[in-house]
Design brief:
heterodimer, A: 620 residues, alpha+beta, five-stranded mixed β-sheet, globular, B: 173 residues, mainly alpha, Monooxygenase, protein-folding chaperone binding (chain B), coiled coil (chain B)
Chain lengths: 620, 173
């Protein structure tokens, strides 16, 4: 388990100390980890000097293998070797089977629709498999950097919905990582390119990975990367190209659509190899031995282009829509950046070049650029670059809405709204004495509930009994900088905060995550307690350090008596922090938080005034 | 602090979009949650809430319709949730024509092109209403406020039409 760096009790970490942070690209096919070392972002290789970790995990009866070792046995032990697990994250089995009807796994489903892989090594869900990949990457980073990671930035497709984002964060939590931010992959790529070129203006990032497609349009201006619009398809990528080739092979070889898992895997591997060959050659000779029989076929680049044409067209439609959402045109785009291994396909490159009317940039390795950008942001968020003016403003990719009468969806936060965002909506009761109400939150662009993704059902309970229509319940939907939704509610006339019971439409609840963390520990009970204590201690250190720095900078904003009160609460926290009573630390943190509330508000006012006065100096 | 005060701008409809954007970015630099990544949970949550307010303020002031509505709210006229309809017969007639046109567009063989043409006409009519609004909001009299309110109601109709066009376009993808 990766842990946070902890200073001696009572001492804050020295301000100049470099904190270890990493950017992780958790990809469908391959994953990478990168970090800023001596001022430069670089991908961290494994012991064999390989940058890529195949996103493959093998669960054998004896052992669990990740990466290259797992990849090597996908052909021989297909059922127990999970590939492209990102396809499953935050999804149901039915979702995945829409595109991949012939999955080689023994799948079952929990009551909540979470897919479960039944392997020789036991039952695993996508969060657990992803956590195993993250653990391997974090261990690599810690070995290379020579210390424990303070935190990580993990990239996700911009088009990931709330359930997929939440599941990714759950996986990090399970792997014991402190997530500084979930960062959208195209935004990460824009950071790597933008800082590299120093050019300002509108840039488009076309990101076609193994299983997902994203298009993002960003405006770069004086260190601010403002995403104007994003679009895409979280189930479209290079894997789909492979599927089309596999389908073609089955037809040519005279196979049924449904073949054994082993043959399917052989065909997929052959298809992928042919696709890669066609990047540099005009023809690829396919040769496989299936059940002792030789099968041969030649695939030309023209044939491949024809097969994938409908998918490439789909990506261009998303580009068109994103341009429209951003209220810009293709010729305003100064640079087009290509990201993701699937942009190596020549047909993809030429289609993108034609659409935007300019040659796309590819000089940063499209496999590595996302991890590099994530590393740069991780370095800043960890506090290693206090003077940096880089700021990423991202958007919510899909509209959030509520179910209304007749199975219709009313949008409350439209797609491409800058995050964080909060919207309040008022509801009222329609029966006398009604004390509960259900709110169904959905994500998507369509009008009908059935066509959108159901995120969660919230039960508002404890509404004070009143006449119909008299209670006014104000529900606030908040989306944070990671793109994650939270909901709170309050009855206005009585000021009673209605309690909310969340039932995720599928996916894991908080208790499921806690159970998984517990079961991953050898001596579950004690380890869990130790981990929770440590998390609380880390939080105490953060509070104390941030406040010490703030007091050093702006201490004069406090009257001496206010200062004494705050200092006392901080001293009490230091004492609690040195002990092992988790609840006492929690309590002491709250006391400090309350004592510093007014100070924080004054500081914010000062910094707002400062920010705007900086502006008027600039404009003179 | 109201939205204008947050941006340190005079409380008026006329506004320099580029200047507003610059102020917005400067405030983001000071307020964004990324600036509080190594702070405690409470401070992080506050940063999320403050930035959400900043984003709301920016979006409200950035778009002419919501800016006008907001100014009227500050002047004590809140029409954000009202159901009142428009009495101007000429405008209502034009609305009916628009409805018919939308039906035609929906049935069109060249959906995207027809949507584009309709959008262009819609934008022209919207721009005319906006300049009318700008003049009215400069006058701090009750009658001007009432007239401005009526224009805002009309703009909301235009906005709805725009949304419906967008929905049609959504189906084309």
């Amino acid at each position: 388990m990766a842990l946070l760096q902890i200073a001696e009790p009572g001492q804050s970490t020295a301000p100049h100390e470099h904190r270890l942070a990493a950017g992780i690209d958790l990809g469908t096919t391959n994953s990478l980890v990168a970090s800023v070392r001596s001022g430069t972002a670089e991908v961290l290789n494994d012991a064999q000097q390989r940058p890529i970790l195949p996103s493959v995990v093998h669960y054998g009866a004896e052992q669990t293998l990740t990466g290259h070792e797992a990849l090597a046995i996908t052909d021989s032990d297909t059922e127990n070797t999970i590939v492209s697990v990102k396809r499953f994250i935050g999804r149901t089995v039915a979702d995945v089977q829409k595109n991949f009807s012939n999955l080689p796994y023994h799948l079952s489903e929990t009551d909540n629709g979470v897919p479960v892989f039944n392997t020789a090594g036991g039952q695993r869900n996508a969060v657990q498999v992803s956590a195993d990949i993250l653990r391997t990457l974090a261990a690599r980073a810690e070995a290379t950097l020579g210390g424990e990671l303070t935190g990580v930035v993990i990239t996700v497709p911009a088009y990931f919905d709330d359930a997929q984002r939440q599941s990714t964060k759950d996986a990090a939590q399970l792997a014991g990582l402190n997530v500084l931010r979930l960062l959208n992959e195209p935004t990460a790529a824009a950071v790597a390119y933008g800082l590299d070129s120093g050019r300002e203006g509108l840039i488009a990032v076309y990101d076609l990975g193994g299983g997902t497609f994203d298009i993002s349009l960003l405006r770069l201006d004086k260190g601010v990367f403002e995403v104007l619009a994003t679009g895409g398809d979280s189930a479209l990528g290079g894997d789909d190209f492979d599927q089309l080739i596999v389908h073609h092979l089955k037809q040519e070889f005279g196979f049924d659509d449904k073949v054994s898992a082993k043959i399917e895997r052989q065909l997929i591997n052959a298809a992928r190899q042919a696709k890669e060959t066609l990047t540099d050659s005009n023809r690829a000779d396919i040769q496989i031995v299936i059940n002792g029989q030789d099968y041969q076929l030649t695939l030309t680049r023209d044939q491949l282009n024809e097969l994938i044409a409908p998918l490439v067209k789909r990506t261009l439609l998303s580009c068109k829509r994103a341009l429209k959402d951003a209220e810009v045109t293709a010729d305003e785009v100064i640079d087009v950046v290509l990201v993701g291994g699937s942009t190596r396909v020549p047909q993809v490159r030429s289609a993108v070049a034609e659409f935007f009317g300019k040659e796309p940039l590819t000089h940063i390795d499209p496999d590595q650029v996302v991890a590099l950008g994530a590393a740069i942001q991780a370095d800043i968020l960890a506090g290693n670059k206090p003077d940096s003016d880089m700021l990423l403003l991202d958007v919510i990719p899909l509209s959030l809405g509520l179910e209304t009468m007749g199975g219709l969806v009313e949008k409350i936060i439209p797609r491409n709204t800058t995050i964080p965002v909060a919207k309040a909506q008022e509801f009222t009761t329609f029966k006398d004495g009604q004390t509960a109400m259900m709110i169904h939150v959905l994500q998507g662009e369509r009008e009908l509930v059935d066509h959108c993704r159901s995120l969660a059902r919230f039960n508002l309970l404890d509404i004070p009994p009143m006449a119909a229509g008299a209670a006014h319940i104000r529900v606030t939907f908040q989306v944070d900088a990671d793109g994650l939704l939270s909901v709170s509610a309050m009855e206005k006339s009585s000021g009673v905060s209605a309690s909310i019971q969340v039932k995720p439409s599928y996916g894991l609840g908080d208790t499921d995550i806690a159970d998984m963390i517990q079961s991953s520990m050898s001596n579950a009970k004690e380890d869990m307690a130790a981990r929770m204590l440590r998390e609380q201690q880390v939080e105490a250190d953060r509070v104390l350090e941030a406040l010490s720095q703030a007091l050093a900078a702006d201490g004069e904003l406090l009257e001496p008596s206010e200062r004494t009160k705050l200092d006392d609460s901080m001293e009490a926290l230091r004492i609690a922090r040195a002990g092992t009573d988790k609840a006492a630390i929690e309590q002491a943190i709250e006391t400090v938080d309350n004592a510093s509330e007014e100070f924080a508000a004054r500081r914010m006012n000062k910094s707002i005034r400062h920010a705007l006065s900086g502006k008027s100096v600039d404009s003179i | 602090m109201n939205h204008f005060e947050l941006f340190d701008l005079p409380q008026q409809f006329t506004l320099d979009a580029a200047d507003l954007q610059q102020r917005y970015r400067q405030l983001q630099q000071a307020m964004h949650p990324d600036r509080f990544a190594s702070s405690g949970e409470r401070e992080k949550l506050r940063a999320v809430q403050r930035t959400a307010q900043l984003n709301d303020a920016y979006q409200t002031l950035r778009k002419p319709l919501s800016r006008a509505e907001y100014i009227l709210t500050l002047r004590g006229i809140d029409i954000r949730h009202e159901q009142q309809t428009i009495s101007d017969p000429e405008f209502l007639m034009a609305q009916m024509e628009w409805r018919e046109r939308l039906e035609e567009v929906a049935a069109s063989n060249d959906l995207l092109a027809d949507i584009g043409r309709a959008e262009k006409d819609l934008l022209e009519q919207t721009a005319a209403l906006q300049s009318e609004l700008e003049q009215l909001l400069e006058q701090p009299t009750d009658s001007a406020n009432d007239a401005a309110t009526e224009v805002v109601r009309k703009l909301k109709f235009m906005h709805k039409l725009r949304n419906e066009l967008e929905r049609l376009e959504e189906q084309a993808y």
